[in-house]
Model the fold of this input.
Amino acid sequence: MLSSNFQSLGLVALAGLARAATVSYNFDITWVWAAPDGYGRPVVGVNNQWPCPTIEANVGDTLVVTLTNKLGNQTTGIHWHGINQVSTEEMDGPSGVNQCSVAPDSTITYQFVVDVAGTYWYHSHNMGQYPDGLRGPMIVRDPNDPNKSKYDEEVIISVTDWYHNESLVLVRNMLQPSNTEFKPPIPVGLLVNEGQGSHINFEAGKNYRIRLINFSALANALIHFGSHTMHVIMNDASMIKEQSADMIRIAAAQRYDFIIQAGKNENSNFPFLISLDINRDMHNPNLGPLQWPFNYTGYLVMDSSKALDAIDIVQKWNPVDDSHFKAYDGAGPYENYDKLIKLDFQFCLDENNYPRACFNNVTYISQKVPTLYTAVTTGDDNTNPEIYGEVNPFVVDDGDVVQIVVNNLDAAAHPFHLHGHHFQVLARADSQAGSWSGKDTGYASTPPKRDTVTVNGGSHAVLRFKADNPGVWLFHCHIEWHVEMGLTATIIEGPSKLKGFSIPDDFINACKVQNIPYQGNAAGNTQNYTDTTGFITVPPTTYDGSMYIASSGSGSKVKREAEEKKVKFGMLGVGKFE
Ligand SMILES: *[C@@H]1O[C@H](CO)[C@@H](O)[C@H](O)[C@H]1NC(C)=O
Ligand SMILES: *[C@@H]1O[C@H](CO)[C@@H](O)[C@H](O)[C@H]1NC(C)=O
Ligand SMILES: *[C@@H]1O[C@H](CO)[C@@H](O)[C@H](O)[C@H]1NC(C)=O
Ligand SMILES: *[C@@H]1O[C@H](CO)[C@@H](O)[C@H](O)[C@H]1NC(C)=O
Ligand SMILES: *[C@@H]1O[C@H](CO)[C@@H](O)[C@H](O)[C@H]1NC(C)=O
Ligand SMILES: *[C@@H]1O[C@H](CO)[C@@H](O)[C@H](O)[C@H]1NC(C)=O
Ligand SMILES: *[C@@H]1O[C@H](CO)[C@@H](O)[C@H](O)[C@H]1NC(C)=O
Done:
């Protein structure tokens, strides 16, 4: 008796300590011809294939991805969305921030530990490139998942908006003085699992864990599983107390994990509906002409000999309010805060009357030296926000509790993403509730932790995180088109711990081959860090996206230098894109 008990305990312990493995992938980034909706176009794929592969690992594993750029005419780089990169801030991926972009024929190796189980995705974080296709699911499993006994099978569903023109064309078209209404590119359709459809084989009596990922560049999606309730267990790879939901709204970059149970006596095929919402704020029907133009009906297929013809009708979309989810660990909000970062977002015009997006009337302008490389090479001066240039820098000290308040002065809802942390969502007010009152009251008692939160139109959200992960982390709108308009802030976290941090040689070489400086202040000045000569202070009037111009070395950066002038943000506009 004793010995057999002992043995089974031993087995459990062994499973718990399952040895952390190294999981390696080779990613050659290549152009691929694809027609996911019947319309053929070039897309950015991996190893001559598209859709891009799913990365799978167990929690605690070291993931090694060797990336070689074989695009010929574009630079690239990958962000591992939702992985907080504890102690590996140089692996986060955004070009011009945590690394230099990777030129054609260059190779870099990303290496980091996947320390928290959940549903993630990876995508290009290089100048508007991911809507052209470079994105894929990334699943980190926990062999001891407390919910493991609750499901029999796993299903990944990705949803995304889709475009027929390449991003470069779309963004060039958007960034014109004639675009006085700040219109983003409008998608031509909805892809589910990159167009391959998503009928789910369903067996009576079994439970399914659905991992829902939104790859969108713009649009939100709503999902409804007919008469089947969704039992939500995770948002953005962070566990929540199980919450049942009839409808879920998923914004760009968000993820939900939920369980669907097939009844023991079920024997028919059940339709489910995914609707793409390209309305600016679903709570405001007056903004309606573009509401629900694209629907996808999939089926939970119990019996493939029976017809797939029923449809799932939703009279009115009324998704569960995810800001009321509760953190699984029951933790309350961090008490008080040491640093307040208040960000008023609205569309704005630059001095050349180009449409931009601003936090506190300042638009993000990419500098010459990646911001992390400035932080690690400028010694004690790295606490001075001035040396980073116009990247909307906010310096927070190691150990600070930071409160971010986003006041969304635009009429549309926008999803905001923080790198390096899962923040607590203390409050996410209703559509048109106005800006934050300045009073810290009425907050959630067990706030959900997420990496992406939707802030409703004309409203606000209050977020907190603890600065326990030194690095340079972006906070930005995850509507890719708005990133290209400059809707980004940069958190310089724990600069005292970043001094002298070493950057791997292959990452430095990625800069060298393009003549991009990798030390000193924003302009690469290594003698006098407060000397702002060479800072880029006016957004360029030409847009080259990820385009690589071999003859001029660093391509668009060279051109941008020629356009430096003094900035003056005066006229502010009000966004509109119906
Ligand atoms: C997942 O596991 C947690 C912890 O055991 C439990 O509270 C929760 O109810 C489980 N969720 C489901 C869907 O079984
Ligand atoms: C692509 O862009 C061109 C030029 O702006 C435009 O005429 C065309 O309608 C666009 N095509 C699609 C499919 O969006
Ligand atoms: C994905 O996110 C975008 C951007 O917020 C949103 O417009 C779209 O509806 C989302 N898709 C789904 C299926 O929720
Ligand atoms: C998509 O589905 C929604 C909800 O059922 C409906 O209101 C809308 O009209 C549908 N759109 C189209 C284009 O059929
Ligand atoms: C932004 O500019 C507007 C108009 O000039 C001004 O009213 C507002 O106070 C400014 N906001 C911030 C945060 O500076
Ligand atoms: C560094 O540059 C700043 C700005 O141009 C200037 O004010 C300062 O005197 C310079 N410091 C040194 C030591 O040259
Ligand atoms: C690069 O090559 C691809 C594939 O041939 C092409 O579709 C694209 O337009 C080219 N140019 C740029 C700037 O990306």
Remarks:
- The two ends are 72 Å apart (CA to CA).
- Residues 528, 530-531 surround 2-acetamido-2-deoxy-beta-D-glucopyranose (ligand 6) (CB under 6 Å).
